[in-house]
Amino acid sequence: MTDSLASSGLVVVDKPAGMTSHDVVGRLRRLYSTKKVGHAGTLDPMATGVLVVGIERGTKFLAHLVASTKSYDATIRLGQATTTDDAEGEVLTERSRSCADMGEALADAEIYAGVDKLTGDIMQRPTAVSAIKIDGKRAHERVRDGESVEIPARPVTVSRFTVHDIRRNGEFIDLDVTVDCSSGTYIRALARDLGGDLGVGGHLTALRRTAVGPFSLDGARTLEDLATEADSGTTPAVTLPLDAALPACYPTLEVTAEEGAALAMGKWLEPRGLTGTHAAVTPDGRAIALVKEQGKRLATVFVAHPSTL
């Protein structure tokens, strides 16, 4: 294995607040001394937690990294709506029912009923300040340029929406929640819609992503930890080299060394009756490629160990 492939893979970062995902990429480019760094699943500057980053050939794998589920811990504030659906936006409305004290005007049962309404398979309108592209331009860029943005609702799945604590301070109600959801779900939009359905407005004041597919905070590293390792004179190790990253994300298909060599050259194999994409792994533990049956061929989707490297 070449040095390039030995240093390739995924780094699971515990992103700090106040940094964009692009900021994290820039930091890792310096720490790993390479321009080949990219991220999957953008986190807003306010948010913290799991950010999956590809290093060297790991950047090529990011395009095939499909995380169907994500998990978050968040705080939702009821009684105030903002332009961005989170604490970084300007306040649009501050209201309670009939201008009454929020703590008295909204019962726990109503809050739980509102949460139940937003649990399961729902239609969600993404927040306007998102990275979704509209006619080739990201929605948040259009908002910044003064355009009015209305993104159509789309189906998402919220498999868990649990309220852990309800804190009342008279003016607002803060909810500490945990959300497990499908990729593409906006937690800010859940806060907005919960407040809207209850007639008091709502936005997000804190967000921490605890898991993206198989990657969780348990395996995440802080930028400080990575910098300390780099300061010691060694390039920080990746969290998962490609040989571990591919099987972590896809079911495994065992192939012979000869078959692995063929896949490394981009050749196809005889079909095996597989459904979906698999990680082809040789007897020595190398995840050679992602493969998928296409007609009468078992073809490569992504080659992690090309024969040319």
From TrEMBL:
Residues 188-246 form the tRNA pseudouridylate synthase B C-terminal domain. It holds the Pfam family TruB_C_2. The active site is at D44. Keywords: Isomerase, tRNA processing. The keyword Transmembrane helix does not apply. One of its GO terms (biological process) is tRNA pseudouridine synthesis. Responsible for synthesis of pseudouridine from uracil-55 in the psi GC loop of transfer RNAs. PANTHER family: PSEUDOURIDYLATE SYNTHASE TRUB1, TRNA-PSEUDOURIDINE SYNTHASE. NCBIfam families: TruB (TIGR00431). This is tRNA pseudouridine synthase B. It comes from Corynebacterium incognita.
